[in-house]
Amino acid sequence: MSRLAAGVVLVTAREDASEELGDLTVGEDIGMTATAFLSVSLDPPLVMVSLRNGSRMDDLLDEQPLWGVSVLSESQRHIAGRFAMKGRISDRLLFEDIPYARGSATGAPLVRGALATLECRTEQRVVAGDHTLVIGRVLTAAVPSAEGGPLVYFRGRYRTLG
Ligand SMILES: Cc1cc2nc3c(=O)[nH]c(=O)nc-3n(C[C@H](O)[C@H](O)[C@H](O)COP(=O)(O)O)c2cc1C
Predict the structure, then answer these.
(1) Is 133 close to ligand 1, i.e. is its CB under 6 Å away?
(2) 95 lines ligand 1 (CB under 6 A)
(3) How far is CA 36 from each of CA 5, 93, 96, 134, 145, rounded to the nearest angstrom?
(4) CATH annotation of 6-157
(5) CA–centroid distance, residue 53 to ligand 1 (Å)
(6) Domain extents for the chain?
(7) Distance between CA atoms of residues 17 and 75, nearest Å
(8) Which GO terms fall under biological process for this protein (predicted)?
């Protein structure tokens, strides 16, 4: 599968987002770099991400249904790198120097300058081996950055087009 070139996204969610939406001071933000992300349906608009069972994002999205996706650009490789680190305890410091806006529908951080951002509500979770397929309804979609190419992952390395 390392021969399948993939775009790179940052999946984000806020702990306690369902209860605390509107109170931006409560709940920690979590982020996870992912390539197993795809469009599933146009009507209704559904997307899917595959999360490793037991990862912090999987645990969080098991508890609450709201999440965000930022499609990373070629200039955001450092963001992909830091949110893929294993054994992190907290993501608070990781978000500190990243410009982001909070999604209006989910409270999830959406990276400024991303090629596209989505906000989603989980409709279905399908356990598949050691991962869980999380299918989400797209609540909002935006294209914050008109410029720049995609960040691509191919044969174990980040790449750019061209
Ligand atoms: C390029 C790249 C793509 C990744 N794609 C996924 C993915 O689609 N799903 C997933 O569960 N983990 C994926 N990971 C691994 C997670 O980013 C990583 O396991 C997680 O951030 C570490 O947190 P954890 O200790 O809670 O698992 C990917 C890592 C990299 C470097």
Answers:
(1) no
(2) no
(3) 11, 25, 26, 11, 22
(4) 2.30.110.10
(5) 11
(6) 6-157
(7) 29
(8) pyrimidine nucleobase catabolic process
